[in-house]
C-alpha cells in the first residue's frame, strides 16, 4: 500500500476502529429488519452480513480493490454474524423494532460516509469524487438490506433526511482531506455530526419537501 | 487511452454528446418514477442519479474501468440532478406520468445501447460481447430504477417490446464496428432506430408472446 | 492463466462441465419463475439469462476477472436461452411450478458452491475466503432472479435450509483444496452432497429456527 495517501497512524487506527463499529451497527440494522420481516435464523445472519459488508464491497469494486476487503478479512462478516446472534436471542418486540433499527442504521451511516470517503481518497480519487463514493458507501449497505428484504430503500422514501447527513459528512471529510486537516479528531467530528444530524432529523421528524402535486384533484389518484 | 480502438473525432464527439443526452433522459425517467411513487426531493434526486449513471457504472465494472467514469466526471451526476430539479418543479399529473416516463426511458435506452456497445468494443471486447454489454448498459439503469422504486423492471414485464429494440440497436452497432462502418451517421441511425422501434411498440401496443398456459383451468390460478 | 492454481485436466474438465450444467439448471429456475409471474417470452429469456449468469458475474467482479467470463463466452447465455425456450414451450401448470423451480435451483446451488469456490481458490484467494465467495456465487444468481421478479429471495425466507447446504458444500470444497485432495470425484461428492441436502430439506420441510417473539402478544402484530 506504499502508493496510498498516508494519514498517520492515529487516523489509520481510527479508520479501522470506525469500520468495525460501522459494520457492527449495520449488522444490527440488518438483523433487526430480518426479525421484523420474520425471517429465520439463516435469513437473519444473511441479511446482517449483506447489510454490514455491502457498502464496502461496492466501494472496493468502484476503486478497483479486488478482492474487496470484506472477502479478505472475514472478521467483518464475523462481526456482522455476532450482531445477528445478539439480535436473534435478544430483540425488541416487532412493533417497536423500527426505532432501534433506525438508530443502528444512523450510526453505520455516519461512520461509513467518513471512512468511505477516506478510503476512496487514499486510493487516488479526487476529493469531490471521494465524497461521492463516500455517500454511496454509506447508503449502499442499507439499500442492499432494504431491496433484499422487499421494503422501499430508506434513501428514497424515509421522509426524514437520510441521504443529506451522509452527503454533509462526506463533503466535510473530503474538505478536511483536501486541505490536509483530516485527523483522528476532525474525522470523528464529521462522523459524529452526520450521526447526530440523522438522529435529530429522525426524532424531530424533519422532512424534505415533496414535489407539488400538479393539480388538486391529483392528490388522491392511484399510483 | 492509447490502446483503445480509435473511432475518429466526429464519432468520439457524438459518443460524448450521446452519453450526455442519454444521462439526461434516464435522469428524467428516474425523477418521474420518484414523483409517481411520492418520494420527497431527496428521493427524486437519488433515483434520478442512480437511473442515469447505473447502466454506465455496470458497463465500466464489467470492462474493468475503475473508478467508473460516473465517479470521475461528476458532470453526469450533475446532469441527472438538473433533470431531477426540472421534474421537481414541473411534472405532469401523477395519473398520466407513465407516458413521459416511457418516452424519456426510450430515448436513454436507444442511445445507451449504441454508446455502451461502442465503449465495450473500444475496450477490446469482441463485437458479439460488446453487443451483449451494450444491451446490459441500456437496460441496466432502468432495472436499477425499477428495483429501487419497488416496481417490476420494464425489461421483464413491460409487455411492449423493451429489450428487443436495445438488442437490435446493439447488434446493428456491433456489426457496423466489426466491418469498420461505424460513423457519426450510421451510429446515430442505429440509435434512432432503437428509440423509434421502442416508441412505435409502446404506442401501437406491440406485445411479445406469452408462454401458453398449460391447461385452461390454470389461467386464473393464484401466483 | 499460468499463475492460476492447477487442478489437473480431469478436474478442469469437470469444472467446465459442472458450470454448464449449473447454468442450465439456474436458467430453468429463472424461466420457471418468469412463467409463474406471467412475463412474456422476452421476460422469460431475460430472467433465465440473468439468473444463470448472475452468480458468476458477481464472482468474477470480486476476483477482478474482467470482463467476466459470461461476457466473453456467450455460450453461457446461449445455454440459459435454450433453457428459456424449453420452458416457454413446455412448462408445468403455474400452480405446481414451485417444485420444479426449487429442484432446478437446488442443482444450480449445489454445483456453483463447488465451482465458485474452486475458481476463487485458483485466483489466489485463501481457502476460507474462497469458501465465502463460493457461497456468494451459489446464492447470487437466485438472489438476482428473486429481486428482479419481485419476490423475497429464497436465501432469506425460504424456510427450508437454503444457504446452509451451499455453505457446507463450499466449506467441504475449500477444505479439499487446502489439503490438496480436490479431485473430479471428491469435488463431485461435495456438490452432490449440497444438492442432496437441499432437496432433503425441501421435501422433508426442515426449517431453521425463528427468532423467539419477544412477548406473546407480539406474535400477531403488523409488520
Automatic annotation (TrEMBL), chains A, B, C:
PANTHER family, alphabetized: INNER MEMBRANE PROTEIN (PTHR30506), UPF0126 INNER MEMBRANE PROTEIN YADS-RELATED (PTHR30506:SF3)
Gene Ontology cellular component terms for the protein in this record: plasma membrane
Annotated compartments: Cell membrane
Residue ranges annotated for the Glycine transporter domain, each copy included: 19-91, 103-176
Principal location: membrane
UniProt topology in membrane: Multi-pass membrane protein
Entry keyword annotation includes Repeat: no
Keyword Transmembrane helix: yes
Protein name: Trimeric intracellular cation channel family protein
Pfam families to which the protein is assigned, alphabetical: Gly_transporter
Keywords: Cell membrane, Membrane, Transmembrane, Transmembrane helix
Bilayer-crossing regions: 16-34, 41-58, 70-91, 103-124, 185-206
Superkingdom of this protein's organism: Bacteria
Family of the protein in this entry: Belongs to the UPF0126 family.
Amino acid at each position: 500500500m506504499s502508493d496510498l495517501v498516508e494519514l498517520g497512524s492515529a487516523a489509520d487506527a481510527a479508520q479501522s476502529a470506525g469500520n468495525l463499529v460501522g459494520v457492527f451497527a449495520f449488522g444490527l440494522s440488518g438483523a433487526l429488519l430480518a426479525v421484523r420481516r420474520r425471517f429465520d435464523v439463516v435469513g437473519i445472519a444473511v441479511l446482517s452480513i449483506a447489510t454490514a459488508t455491502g457498502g464496502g464491497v461496492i466501494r472496493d469494486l468502484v476503486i478497483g480493490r479486488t478482492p474487496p476487503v470484506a472477502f479478505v478479512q472475514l472478521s467483518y462478516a464475523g462481526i456482522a454474524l455476532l450482531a445477528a446472534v445478539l439480535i436473534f436471542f435478544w430483540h425488541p418486540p416487532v412493533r417497536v423494532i423500527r426505532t432501534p433499527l433506525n438508530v443502528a442504521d444512523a450510526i453505520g451511516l455516519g461512520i461509513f460516509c467518513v471512512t468511505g470517503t477516506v478510503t476512496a481518497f487514499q486510493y487516488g480519487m479526487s476529493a469531490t469524487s471521494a465524497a461521492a463514493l463516500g455517500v454511496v458507501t454509506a447508503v449502499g449497505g442499507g439499500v442492499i438490506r432494504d431491496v433484499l428484504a422487499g421494503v422501499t430503500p430508506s434513501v428514497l422514501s424515509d421522509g426524514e433526511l437520510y441521504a443529506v447527513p451522509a452527503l454533509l459528512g462526506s463533503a466535510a471529510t473530503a474538505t478536511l482531506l483536501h486541505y490536509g486537516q483530516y485527523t483522528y479528531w476532525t474525522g470523528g467530528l464529521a462522523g459524529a455530526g452526520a450521526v447526530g444530524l440523522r438522529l435529530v432529523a429522525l426524532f424531530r421528524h424533519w422532512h424534505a419537501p415533496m414535489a407539488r402535486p400538479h393539480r388538486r384533484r391529483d392528490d388522491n389518484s392511484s399510483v
